User: What shape does this take?
Amino acid sequence: MSVSPEINIALDVRGAVKIFDTRGIRLPLPWNRGKPELVVAVDQVSFQIERGRIYGIVGSNGCGKSTLVRMISTLLYPDGGTLNVFGYDVVDDSQKVRRLINRVSVEASFFRKLSPMENLLFAGQTYGLDHDETEQRVMNILARLGIKEEQVLRPLEQMSRGMQQKVAVARGFLTSPTLLLLDEPTTGLDPASKRQVQKFIAELREEHDATVLLVSHDMDEAEKLCDVIAIMSEGRIVASGSIPELVELAARKGPAGNLEEAFLTIVGHALDEETEDSAGAWDLEATPKD
Assistant: This one.
């Protein structure tokens, strides 16, 4: 599905909210007598991504990053706000949105008895791609990701966790999506493989006019790839801007020579920690207002 070149905003998120009941499945009355235990996973998040940009969202585990990506990819309904992909609403126009996006996540699922080639041919078929063209594209993508030809026909269950993640990345790239959603795409990869994937992400943007949303807690990866970075904590975006802008902002409060130091200063805790009152502590000019 093509997008008019006149559309310059790839993703427009305004006041996105997602709330979960932490008790799980609720029983019908009269057995369910307790009050719901609600958690706001995404709290009034707003941002825009210009077409052709790589936009990063960084934050600790549990801060709401993956929930936000699932809403953008139509896997979760938002409980408030609007999310638009190239002008299409993720709820009202979900089928059109799905033709424009692809998603790579750390918990990617496969038919593990099948080979990478068989899995990717099946994925191509679900998108209506030509078999022979898909096969050729699969070989090209896997080769660029460092998967050898003799490994392409091995069952996935015989491959390492890192190698399986490379296949997940290949599946995300297979359809040349207009908006690519990357949720911790290099988790589990060794340093060399991580560099191959990062290089391919940058090349995809250049070759196919793709827009990329990269969600990560890997600060080095975000620094290498992203044009703009948003820092997320406790379900909210607490600062956003280019790396120099974030470093300058953080330097008003403490040491901030790079993105990781800026993150620690702005959020106030380490990457694997998420505290109840860490978000909202800063009144930041860089925080999206609409």
In short: DSSP finds nine helices and ten strands in the chain.
